[in-house]
């Protein structure tokens, strides 16, 4: 049976493992990551000290992107000693409490990690179509009886992601913004501009990846589909039209 993955934060119970019986040791989370990442890419690894009533030791919550990877890891690791003297207990989470209901997009770094794993480092590419400074005054706000003006730095970015082996091409458009405490300071303006440009590019890249679905087959091969539910009006524009629209 095929499994469909998207570029969003994993929230399913089947994607999450609970590991307990962990012994205190330096670099515990690193050991967990090294062990469980062999079964597939991980979204997060978090180790926590046991509650006082449970006795000394630690437990961990490990989130996979793929429920299939989580299941294989559970079967292989449950009851094994792995990196410690006593065997670990590993189970798939069954409690819904604590899982976020809102589905959030992965940040650009996580999107790239997932794409590299399933598509290969040469299986996808991205380019910036346009990155434009759209800064200006945000207007006046009244505070403590005085009229104040606060300037912000804004950059609007359009990015294109291409998957040549699958014939898929997507776009993402995003705005990066930061307030300036002192708009007379050229160094602050320069640093803020660099930071906001990076933010805008990252958000646009993440937005482009939201339109991609990965179909992981039982034999390990990966197919790709365009996620039309995330389609935007800007996707139908030519590059020149898109640049003109952003300039406006």
UniProtKB/TrEMBL annotation:
GO MF annotation list: DNA binding; RNA binding
Gene3D superfamilies: 3.30.70.330, DNA repair protein Rad52/59/22
Domain RRM: 15-95
Keyword 4Fe-4S assigned: no
Swiss-Prot/TrEMBL keywords: Cytoplasm, DNA-binding, Nucleus, RNA-binding
InterPro entries linked: DSRM_RDM1, Nucleotide-bd_a/b_plait_sf, Rad52_Rad59_Rad22_sf, RBD_domain_sf, RDM1, RDM1_RRM, RRM_dom
Keyword DNA-binding appears in the UniProt entry: yes
GO cellular component: cytoplasm; nucleolus
Entry's localization field: Cytoplasm; Nucleus, Nucleolus
Any one GO biological process: double-strand break repair
Annotated PANTHER family: RAD52 MOTIF-CONTAINING PROTEIN 1
Oligomeric form and interacting partners: Homodimer.
Name of the protein in question: RAD52 motif-containing protein 1
Species whose genome carries this gene: Crotophaga sulcirostris
């Amino acid at each position: 049976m095929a499994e469909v993955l998207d570029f969003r934060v994993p929230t399913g119970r089947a994607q999450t493992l609970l590991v307990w019986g962990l012994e205190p040791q330096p670099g515990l989370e690193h050991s967990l990551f090294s062990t469980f990442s062999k079964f597939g890419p991980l979204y997060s690894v978090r180790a926590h000290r046991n509650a006082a009533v449970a006795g000394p030791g630690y437990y961990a919550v490990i989130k996979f992107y793929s429920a299939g990877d989580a299941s294989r890891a559970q079967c292989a690791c449950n009851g094994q000693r792995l990196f410690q003297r006593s065997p670990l207990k590993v189970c798939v989470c069954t409690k819904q409490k604590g899982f976020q209901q809102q589905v959030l997009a992965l940040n650009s770094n996580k999107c790239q990690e997932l794409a590299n794993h399933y598509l290969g480092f040469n299986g996808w590419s991205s380019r910036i179509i346009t990155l434009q400074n759209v800064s200006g005054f945000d207007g006046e706000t009244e505070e403590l009886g005085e009229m104040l003006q606060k300037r912000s730095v804004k950059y609007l970015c359009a990015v294109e992601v291409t998957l040549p082996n699958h014939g898929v091409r997507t776009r993402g458009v995003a705005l990066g913004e930061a307030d300036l405490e002192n708009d007379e300071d050229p160094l602050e303006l320069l640093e803020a501009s660099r930071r906001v440009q990076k933010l805008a590019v990252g958000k646009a890249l993440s937005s482009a990846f939201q339109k991609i679905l990965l179909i992981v087959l039982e034999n390990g091969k990966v197919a790709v589909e365009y996620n039309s539910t995330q389609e935007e009006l800007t996707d139908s524009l030519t590059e020149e039209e898109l640049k003109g629209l952003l300039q406006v």
